[in-house]
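Workshop exercise sheet. Pairs work together: one partner reads the sequence aloud, the other fills in the structure field after running the prediction. Swap roles for the next sheet.
Pair: D.N. / O.F.
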Amino acid sequence: MHRLIRICLLFPLLWPLALAAQAPSQLDSLKLGESRVERTAQRLVDAGFANVRAVETPEFTAFTVENDYYKLPAEGFARAVQILEGAGLDESKPVKIIGTSYKVPEVTITYDPESGSWRTTKRLDASWDAVRKQKMLNNSFGKVDLTVYPVVSLINLIITQVYQSCWELKPALEVPLWPGARFSYQLVIPVFTDFFENRYHYVHPGFITLSQRFRDPWHLNIQGKFTIGQFSSNSYGAALEAAYWFPNERFWVDTQLGVVSTAYFVGFRWKYVWDPQFVWNVAGNYYNAFLQTQFTLRLQQFLYGDIGLKFEMVRHFRHVSVGFYAEKGRLYTASGALASSQPHTNGGFRVHISLPPYRTKRHGYVPRITTSGQLTYDYNANNEQVYYREFRTEAADNLVSKNYYNPYYIDGIIGKK
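Structure field:
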């Protein structure tokens, strides 16, 4: 009798365990004719990844993923690693995740069966050549985002007021097109401003750009972007940006070359003046993986003809990047003559914050409304209005986004998953 009572008491606890032991797991419940690799690719799609492809060869198993649900690519890659680790794949050979941006490969994340660890590199290998030919799941073509960029600007130019401020919302319609291409149209909506310039008081267009990302087809590790349209700093034109990572990927060089002209806001519209000038910059970069800190020394010709050096140090946290900069140069006229015998110096700091929510689900082709991946604040110590003027080609370009595909930053996030 006592034994029967004990069995009755333990039955509610033992019954779920018995069912779990008999029922196949989600990973093992493959459809008829479906391979484990195909099942894993579908799980990546279900987790919110776009442009997913998969292939298995005798040498490796490879997948492509593109972040759509996760705002920060590194956090998305960490989730993809978790999925693959629990997928029951053949761990006797390397497993590779190729992270793409607008279908252009950015990084390769490889599982090494000997060490049992994952490592990220900017370089591509035979896995990309094999997987790029496979069928694509959850194609991102034509899926629209309405991204809201909140911006706060402060200046200190008059003695009767400590700071003048400008609070704006800048929603941007962003549409991925063919591989590597994106169209963006931004509208600037003033919320509050006591700036004197007319354009800060009216709703007007911001960035209007068509960009094309590319990667060299010879696996030389050269990546870049070509953009035409209306940029920041009252400029418009065409610009080429490119970067090369050395075999020791703590070091890389990058450049920006542009032919730009000036746009003025008159009344309720922009007036475009065709006075083209060639601007350029080239930089050497070093990344300290232990401190997650980037050091950059850049030689640059700025928008109004001044040429100088700019040193920058940026510390990258998970959702925040904080940078300090110093710059020194000379002012030249449009004809190339030296306008001042005294060099000009400037400095300041930059704080760029990735805004929540950090995960945003998409519902088919319904336009998705979300906040930007960053809130930016730049402090200019000398309140320079002429010297050291730069331009950005897209609203999403900043300290946070330019570090999205840094292999050491990604490894740091994957290691903390």
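Discussion prompt: The longest helix spans residues 2-22. What would you look at next?
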